[in-house]
Write a structure and sequence with these properties.
about 625 residues, single chain, alpha+beta, 22 strands
Length: about 625
């Protein structure tokens, strides 16, 4: 890096031949890798130009046959410095400096723009103005801007203020606000004698703010010490780590924050400072947990609108406090018709501020994987909440049974006390034994699929209720797409799980001997053991054929003896065709929340958080306390 001396020509004017006349001469020295912001601020400081209401125009002449070249950005500075390095004499390639009043420039731009041009920024919804349109391609909307310089335009004051807070943390110094209003934002260093300053003002009274002046060099000697001694705000640190928590599955602990802040920014945080930063980041990302309940009415309205024939219910107490919320999307209801009518239900504790319980109902598809049917959040797990859940489930899925059969099963389920340790005895053998089962549950004899679903949603259980419901919807959206793709890539008659089971049975059948008794009844010999297979009734004395509804090894041996294939002896719920039909209805994405068209009476509906104890934002977990005790 070297220093480049540059001659300045100012207070002159351009003639019709592209020559700068009647100017005054001055000079500056800058680094050869200087940015546009540093160059313009150095010029402004040397020539005493107030950039808060003035615009600096920087031009130079390459040769007499070309019009003057203007430096507008970093690339322009690089080109100039490359040219200047070839001749570092002070008088070579002088910069011609013109100064214009900012408000006058806006007036000129407005006059030069035709009345028919809109000049509006639909994306950011700023007031229509040709002057604003000039900055459209350079408007900064993120507060995580890593490089800040003069001339940058931010979408609003809040964004530029947040960007400066991040900047101060990254560069380890503290500033104080000298002036702040709807039109200006002026910062200075906390050290009284330091010349560091930052100034941004609004563009023509719009929401946008432009950096007018930025002297980034500190002249104080207390920069690091001042930053270390002053209390770092969780707000600033939290805003810096927000991207780490966008995916609920991401595990990013306070210890990780400590490590990253030290390695990336040289900040040595205590565990509590890192923990507060995490809490603040989650608050930024997820909002107030209390407000999340109030968003449920409009969310459920949009669900019903975008997924017709879904069963979506919200129940409140007399004081508008949340009680229960149930969702069974039409895609699940449609797919259920092609799955074996065996349902596994389960409940799991939520870890959000207001806690609660999430109840789920699932079954297995033709590939033997989880197919969620319904999900429900209740304030607590008790007889009333379970009864309400099953009533809604009945409304959504009763058509798959006769009403009498369904009511009988629901009454039996409602009598179950899930907290009793000896529940296997209390609920009856028919609930867990295939032999005693009143319905043929085939391979679904335990709640493993419910436990698997709980494992998938483990991290999402910390989300506020609105985000939790949306997480479940997007989970169904993703699974439906992925499983349909896999189904289309399946070329066996049966789904993966059942095709594998059939292949295993086929291998075992190779060593069996068969003796036909009638056309449909066969005796199958396995060593000294004897089994009777009735192909007409799809039964075997081993019990597996009729319970699994899939040919056992003995049945496959009998079929091979008859030169008959297995297809007609498998449950239709296990086939590739059923798998395709299960996922034929896609879970389409919802529009952005800002574009929801919701009636006013829905927006006016109030849903308060459930009554009872709330986990406070400051509550430390046992894991956090363990770290603090180290």
């Amino acid at each position: 890096m070297s220093k480049i001396p540059i001659m300045l020509k100012s207070n002159g004017n351009w003639d019709n031949y592209g020559r700068f006349r009647d100017f005054e001469v001055d000079a500056i020295v800058v680094d050869d890798n200087a940015s546009y912001g540093i160059l313009s601020s150095t010029i402004a400081e040397q020539l005493s130009i107030d950039t808060s209401d003035k615009i600096i125009e920087i031009k130079y002449i390459v040769n007499e046959n070309c019009p003057p070249m203007e430096i507008r950005n970093v690339m322009g500075v690089r080109v100039y410095m490359k040219t200047k390095k070839e001749n570092k004499n002070l008088g070579s390639y002088p910069l011609c400096i013109s100064v214009r009043d900012f408000n006058m420039e806006l007036a000129i731009n407005n006059e030069s723009t035709s009345a028919g041009s809109s000049g509006s920024l639909n994306l950011l919804e700023f007031p229509s103005s040709p002057a604003i349109e000039e900055y459209q391609s350079e408007i900064i909307t993120e507060s995580t801007q890593t490089y800040i310089e003069e001339g940058q335009v931010y979408q609003d004051k809040q964004t530029v203020a947040a960007a400066m807070k991040n900047y101060s943390v990254m560069h380890k110094f503290q500033f104080r606000v000298k002036r702040s209003s709807h039109r200006s934002y002026w910062l200075i260093c906390v050290a009284e004698s330091c010349k560091w300053h930052f100034k941004a003002t609004s563009i023509n009274d719009s929401a946008m703010f432009k950096i007018r002046s930025f002297s980034r060099q500190h002249t104080c000697c207390l920069m690091d010490e001042t930053f270390i001694q002053r209390k770092r705000t969780a707000t600033v640190l939290g805003s810096m780590v927000v991207p780490k928590y966008c995916d609920p599955k991401t595990v990013y602990t306070p210890k990780d924050i400590q490590t990253d802040m030290l390695s990336e920014h040289g900040l040595n945080l205590s565990y509590m400072q890192a923990w507060r930063a995490k809490e603040k980041a989650l608050q930024f990302l997820r909002g107030n947990p209390c407000d999340s309940y109030n968003k449920l009415p409009k969310y459920f309205y949009i669900l019903e609108k975008n997924y017709p024939c879904s069963v979506v219910k919200l129940k409140k107490a007399a004081d508008d406090c949340f009680l229960y919320a149930f969702v069974a999307l039409c895609t699940s209801i449609n797919g259920w018709q092609h799955c074996r009518p065996v349902v596994v239900v389960d409940g799991t504790f939520l870890k959000s501020a207001y806690r609660g319980i999430m109840l789920t109902a699932s079954t297995m598809d033709a590939a033997g994987t989880i197919f969620p049917l319904a999900y429900d959040v209740v304030d607590s797990e008790n007889g009333a909440s379970w009864k309400w859940f099953f009533e809604q489930f009945k409304e959504a899925y009763a058509r798959s049974y006769t009403l009498d059969e369904f009511n009988e099963r629901m009454l039996k389920i409602e009598e179950v006390d899930l907290r009793v340790k000896s529940y296997l005895y209390d609920i009856g053998y028919h609930r867990w034994s295939r032999v005693h089962a009143t319905v043929n549950r085939t391979f679904t004899m335990t709640s493993n699929i419910a436990e698997s679903l709980n494992a998938v949603t483990k991290d999402a259980r910390e989300l506020p209720i609105f985000d939790l419901f949306e997480y479940m919807r997007t989970l169904l959206e993703r699974w439906t797409k992925e499983k349909l793709s896999k189904a289309k890539g399946t070329f066996t008659y049966l789904g993966h799980k059942y095709n594998k089971e059939l292949e295993d049975n086929s291998t075992l059948s190779q060593k069996l001997r068969v003796r036909a008794s009638t056309d449909h009844i066969h005796t199958v010999l396995d060593g000294v053991k004897r089994y009777i297979v009735c192909l007409e009734n799809k039964k075997c004395s081993c019990g597996q054929f009729q319970l699994d509804e899939l040919p056992c090894a003995h049945a496959l041996a009998a079929l091979r003896h008859r030169n008959e294939t297995y297809e007609n002896y498998c449950s239709p719920y296990y086939t590739r065709k059923s798998l395709l039909l299960t996922y034929e209805m896609p879970v389409n994405p919802l529009p952005d929340e800002g574009k929801w068209d919701v009636p006013q009476h829905i927006l006016d509906e109030v849903v308060k958080p459930p009554a009872g104890d709330k986990r406070q934002p400051g509550d430390l977990t046992r894991k956090d306390i363990k770290h603090l005790m180290k």
